[in-house]
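User: I'm preparing a small set of examples for a lab meeting where we compare how different chains pack in three dimensions. I only have the primary sequence for this one, and I'd like the structure in token form so I can line it up with the others. Please keep the answer compact; I'll paste it straight into my notes.
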Amino acid sequence: MPNLHVSMLALEVPNLLPRSIPWIDFTHGSFHVNSHSTWPRHAGRLIWATLLFAIGIVIGYLWTRRPKPAEPATWAQTILGAMGVWVMMTLGYGTIPHEWLTFGNSYLNFSTATYLMRRNRILHFDISRAAFADVVVTMIYGIVLVLQVWLFVRWQKRPVAEAAPAEPEAVEEQPTGGSPFERLRRRRASRVSAYGRPVTTGGE
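Assistant: Understood. Below is the structure token output for the 204-residue chain.
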């Protein structure tokens, strides 16, 4: 039975990815297929977070293609939309970069002691694998920022849907005859407020 505290910290997340897959191995200076590569399990949270973020981008793109309703959004719709944007920003700016750094530092051994490229005639400095991981994180931030601004612009530039034509209301004919006092009372009775309610005075 898994420990409750460990499960609450998301350290034992059910992983539906395969335990091993065929993958290209570069470790011994040659390219050969390793049939027991276990990197999908180690990058499980990174893969699922990226997949959820991609699904959210597709849903947001499809929503931006819909015309803007003529009626203003309700309070519940506004709260749900803000929560969806917060979830997407949390995935893009927090979860995905964090999981990439965790995967790179633990499984891929992207530390300052290992190098992606050493100093040579063309390159006059060393590039560590930790620096490469930081560059990838910077690229992730840039991609997420571009997608965020792009979707915001598309959302603001949506065309407004045409409102349904309202049926013309029957206009009641008001009598024109009578004394000035009766005409004044008829005008007071026909006045309505901004909410469509009749306006009354305190003396009536």
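A couple of notes for your slides: The radius of gyration is 32 Å. Strands lie at 21-25, 32-37, 115-117, 127-128.

User: Perfect, thanks.
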